[in-house]
Amino acid sequence: MTHPAICRLAATLLVLLAPALGAQATDLQAEYRQRRATFAAGVGDGVVLVLGAREPEKDYLSFFQSPSFHYLTGFREPNSALVMVSRGGTVEATMFVPPRSPANEVWTGARAGVDEVARRTGMAARSNVALIPTLDTLLRAMPRLLLVTDPSESPRPTWFRTVEQLFVDTLRARVPGVTVTDLTQRLQRQRGTKSATELAYLRQAILITGRAHEEMMRALEPGMNEFELQALIEYTFRRNGADREGFASIVGSGPNATTLHYNANDRFIQDGETVVTDIGASYRGYSADITRTLPANGRFSPDQRAIYTIVRDAQAAAERQLKVGARAADMVDSSNAVIAAGLARLGLTEGPDATYECGQGQRCAQYRLFYMHGLSHGIGLEVHDPEAYYFSGVITANTAFTIEPGIYVRANLLDDVIPNTPANAAYRAKLASLLPRYRNIGVRIEDDYFITERGVEWVSRVPREIDEIERIMRAPYNGPARRDPALVDAYRRDVP
Ligand code: GLY
Ligand code: MN
Ligand code: MN
Q: Could you tell me the end-to-end alpha-carbon distance of the chain, in angstroms, rounded to an integer?
């Protein structure tokens, strides 16, 4: 507790120093300024609008900043907007933020307010009350709105209007003749390549997530509930300095191991099952994404081992393709080939290239009945972050992404998935004899990689070979590891 008189002196000094501090850009200010300049270069004359996320409607729910707004500003408080006026090759950026409100701060805690945002970001800042009138004026003079939003991964109902769409409707009504150009993809493309700061944040998120996996490997035993593992994981995240989970933790045992984004996490884990744990700590907004598959009782059965080995080999095949300049499709094709061949060897398909009748006269690959998702995605401010290869098809430097093959033997393949048609009869009969043996085995192995000028780096170095996992699981467990200063404190000093 500091003495009040010293506080007053410090406050006076701060006021005196504020202009000097404000004028002196920090490294991070420079980084965000550079991101905005890169984005705006070449967009032509217009008014760029990026809305931050709104305050949650219930004031006790946690807030999550819009990734696009976060990327361009670094500001993580609600109800704000970034406006950039691009004219004749110059760009002027202004933040619109909630004015300070001591009455609201009783509930929310201190908020930055206009002056502090200007000081912290190095941008002009105004009250968000001025946003609509300011846009009115700007757009009347230059009726070209350049909008940046965050794409949705889930289909939206046709009648659904996002906040941005409603906002644009309002502006169109107020400024007739305004044109709207969506520049979301342009920012996505930019976000696909990561700065050194972004990679440093991601590295820390990945290290923390690895600790949680190792903790779980030591703790798991039959009879635990999935929620106990989830609690241990998220305790390890926060305890080591993570902001939160980057996505809902997936702890799926038995049949739940075959549901890709299962997150109810409320089933008791039985002896002899596999447990798929797909988790990611978020550090300064950047999310890791690592999956390990464990035998509940510490030893993989021969059938689990067979499937695990195929998945691990598929991952290794993809890893061998990794280098700057390689085609991302080669990474995918090489791991698909391993999975297709492995499933054929087990008899779960009729051959690596075999197909079945999947409806409406179409034929689909049989191996896709067991491997229904993509191999890789970018990681960053979102767990499914844009990646440079999405746009170019080629692996490039300063990128961060996952490699995550899987095999999932869902119990309802014959009941709900493979149509009962004459063309499928032979394959259905073959599967009927094998399904009792393999059903409910789910295996995913997911790791995180950086590609930089220095080469390829496997960053999520959590044990993943069968003998390593079984060895760790055999060791006695005496409760959660303490917070690791080497992991947390040293890092906080080194990273801006
Ligand atoms: N955790 C979601 C994914 O692996 O893509
Ligand atoms: Mn993933
Ligand atoms: Mn994942």
A: 26
